Amino acid sequence: MSDARTEELRSRLANLHARITHAAEASGRSPSAVTLVVVTKTWPVVDLRRLFDLGVRDLGENRHQEAETKATELAGLGISWHFVGQVQSNKAARIATYADVVHSVDSVRVAERLNAGADQADRLVSCLVQVSLDVGEHHPGDRGGVAPAQVDEVAAVVSGAGRLRLAGVMAVAPRDVEPARAFERLTSISSAIQAVHPDATWMSAGMTGDFEAAISAGATHVRVGSAILGERPLLR
Ligand SMILES: *Cc1c(COP(=O)(O)O)cnc(C)c1O
Fold first, then answer.
1. For residues 169 and 200, is the Cβ–Cβ distance under 8 A?
2. Separation of CA 113 and ligand 1 centre (Å)
3. CA 144 from centre of chain
């Protein structure tokens, strides 16, 4: 496909990769240590096909219904599907039938349901424990995730589940904290988890507004939507 939209996506992707390279090198990291997950929520499948044609293989979605429809339509292409939204426990088993990575495991119950779904579908699903970095009196849980004190417990359940692989931790920076400070906190939680689970090396952090700060803090996966696809329509 070669049309104006494809060219727009091509140039925004190139720009994004340049910014990732710059941020990684500025903090002494290899750019290849950072995976770009392009978050395509709300955008039509035709845009996902364009991204695939441009070489993108990691796509992120945050709503089960939409994610399932897109994954079904694009099955067999070798795309890695990243589920980044809140997992409702009654949808978890379904999500485990198409998601390769779930970034947002935020309870023991969700972990158990994902494992049951993965088992039934004969699949292995990589999981990140989503950590809430909201502090103090501000709306706890505002951006989702488990409290830092509960990360160990959820990580242990994921690690012990036969069909789940504990890959690491994920967070969304709270609105009222400087992203660099929030991500430093996530880095220390990530280190603590790796002390117990050495393979849990992934740290999913950073979106359009703060991915460079996340890379400086050690993010291995950045989740970027609007810097590549444009502003989402205000549907949701
Ligand atoms: C939508 C979304 C993103 C991407 O956000 P942008 O600001 O558009 O880059 C990343 N992570 C999660 C969890 C999201 O829901």
1. yes
2. 24
3. 13
Distance CA(19)–CA(25), nearest Å, equals: 10
- The predicted-structure confidence for 38-52, as pLDDT tens digits, reads as follows 999 999 999 999 999
Centre a 10 Å sphere on the Cβ of residue 60 and count the other Cβ atoms it contains: 24
Is the backbone of residue 42 left (phi > 0), alpha (psi -120 to 50) or beta? left
Q: Identity (one letter) of the amino acid at 232? A: R
- With 80 as the cut, is the pLDDT of residue 180 above it? yes
Cα 18 to averaged position of ligand 1 atoms, centre (Å): 19
Axis-axis angle for helices 151-160, 108-120 (nearest 10): 20
Nearest CA to ligand 1 atom 7: 208
Sign of CA dihedral 203, 79, 223, 147: negative
Task: Classify 215 as helix, strand or coil.
Answer: helix
Give the amino acid at 225: G
Q: Compute, in angstroms, the gap from residue 134 CA to the centroid of ligand 1.
A: 17
**Per-residue pLDDT tens for 135-170?**
655 555 567 899 999 999 999 999 999 999 999 999
